[in-house]
Amino acid sequence: MLNSKTSVKLAALPFFALSLLAQPVTTPSSEPQERRLGHTVEGTRPFTQAVFHTLLAAGVPGGIISARSCKPEASVAFRATGEMTLGDALTHIATITGGGAHWTVADGVINVALQADRPRFLDVPIARLSFTDTTNLWLSLDHLIQSAEARKYLEDTKLNYRLPRSIWATDKPKTPPRPVEIRNMTISKVLNMLAADNGKAIWIYHENSCPNSPNTLDLRIVGE
After folding, report:
1. Domains of the chain: which residue ranges?
2. Which of 59, 73, 109, 212 is the most exposed place for a label (fewest CB within 10 A)?
């Protein structure tokens, strides 16, 4: 099972945006995997969507990792009742999905992965990085991607990444700016830190490898 810690605000996927409008009330728990969903989550959805809606139901921060070929994600037909814990619901989804899907928790953040193999980009170490305002998730993500270590990895591996800009202006801090400086943290730990600091934020990592076409990275963050 995986590790990480982040804050996130998502923008380009409609189903994510709609889901954020109605957050359920759940009973607090000291361990995120022990939180109950509060309401039934069901349907036939791609793995990422299934996990995303399940994390939303539990109201905990998380990260979703999918590194795959150019084939679309397989859909998962699942049903998780409101009385289920988040851990049981995610195990249910992982079992149905197969192929190495698994989850783990680190520093209060649930990380869920589609495959057993972990993308190397997430383990790139960042020696030092200053964030001007970690309440602004898109800006924080841009700071992370523009770090020297992240840029070098993307250039060396020819992994193409572009931060979506279409809704940049809509991601405005709701609280006073919160500057943070980090030292000696991997990219996944920075993402988990941002997610946890922003409460219920979720980061989503997609890496696509297609023959005879550029490899692409889609990294997004979603929050309230």
Report:
1. 14-222
2. 212
23-42 tens-digit pLDDT: 444 445 568 999 999 899 99
> What percent of the chain lies above the pLDDT cut of 70?
80
| pTM of the predicted model as reported, rounded to 2 decimal places | 0.81
pLDDT per residue over 82-92, tens digit each? 999 999 999 99
String of DSSP letters for the chain: -----B--B--S-HHHHHHTT-PPP----SSGGG-B-SS-EEEEEEHHHHHHHHHHHHT--EEEEEEEESSPPPEEEEEE-TTSBHHHHHHHHHHHH-TT-EEEEETTEEEEESSSSPPGGGG-EEEEEEES-TT-HHHHHHHHHTSHHHHHHHHHHTEEE----TTGGG---SSS---EEEEEEEHHHHHHHHHHHTSS-EEEEEEEE-TTS-EEEEEEEE--
